Amino acid sequence: MTPGSIMIETLFGFVSLLFITKLLGKTQITQLTAFDFISAMIFGELVGNVLFDDKAGLKEMALAIFLWGGLLYVIEWSTQRFKRTRELFEGKPTLIIHQGKVSRKSMKKSKLDINQLMHLLRSKGAFSIQEVEYAVLETDGSISILKSSNDQSPTRKDLKLPEQDVHIPILMIVDGEVLWDNVRESGFDQNWLDKQLKEKKFNSVKEVFIAEFKTGEGLYVQPY
After folding, report:
1. Which candidate in 24, 30, 49, 139 could, as Cys together with 91 as Cys, close a disulfide (CB 3.0–4.6 Å)?
2. In what residue span(s) does the YetF C-terminal domain sit (predicted)?
3. Same domain, 82 and 99
4. pTM value > 0.85
């Protein structure tokens, strides 16, 4: 391949990709679903492979780009018009927390564990499961939350109330297993934990899906 042919094919590939991206719309970037991500990777790979293949020229590059771009456009069009196609290629939002309770079934279906859920909640400013009334896992992997009435605005400052110390909630039990490091760092031991569980009518740690401790509010426990 000569420098001139490389330059021409590179410019053609750049302009073609720009055109296809504009044609498909902003969702390819701002609302990246799993299917969109894989499609974008394959799209770039097609151009790269053709660009550095001595036996492929502009015709082959144009065919690869516009064939794949055409398929993506048809899928984008069909997902806007047909609900079943939309669910097939984009998926649908999943209700992870309902009325303050974490749905273990929904988490398992979405391949989501407690640590990932807590990370997503913290990114939305909710450091405790108890603050969230509803949480929806969106198709792009982000989460949308509706806080409980006690944790919504107005703030204490709005009501001119005195400041209070802020404490981060600590997970004590996840999926029936005690997180002993968290228990000890909080200044507690097994006797304290056993007593707390008995007070809440739990006979075994294995009965607990999530247990979270927050200073001033005590231990919050959700069964399976």
Report:
1. 139
2. 81-213
3. no
4. no
H-run or E-run covering 155? none
Last residue of a domain, one of 104, 123, 151: 151
In the chain, the number of structural domains is 3
Same domain, 82 and 113: no
Peptide bond into 223 cis (omega under 30): no
Could you tell me how far CA 220 lies from the centroid of its own chain? 24
Do 107 and 72 reside in the same domain of the chain? no
Q: Considering only CA atoms, which of 66, 15, 138 is closest in space to residue 74?
A: 66
Q: Which of 149, 186, 184 is nearest to 168 (CA)?
A: 186
Is the distance from CB of 99 to CB of 130 less than 8 angstroms? no
Tell me the CATH number at 188. Answer: 3.30.240.20
Q: What is the pLDDT of residues 25-61, one digit of tens each?
A: 655 455 566 666 777 777 777 777 766 666 766 777 7
Residue with tokens 């044609």: 23
Within 13 Å, how many C-alpha atoms sit on residue 2's CB side?
3
Residues 141, 82 share a domain: no
Does residue 130 belong to any structural domain of this protein? yes
**Alpha-carbon distance values, 100 to 20, 57, 96, 135 (Å):** 43, 59, 10, 9
In degrees, rounded to 5, the angle at the alpha carbon of residue 41 between the alpha carbons of residues 35 and 43 is: 100
Same domain as 80, residue 105: no
Domain that holds residue 135: 94-151
Q: What are phi and psi of 22, to 5 degrees?
A: -65, -35
- Identity of the residue numbered 40: A
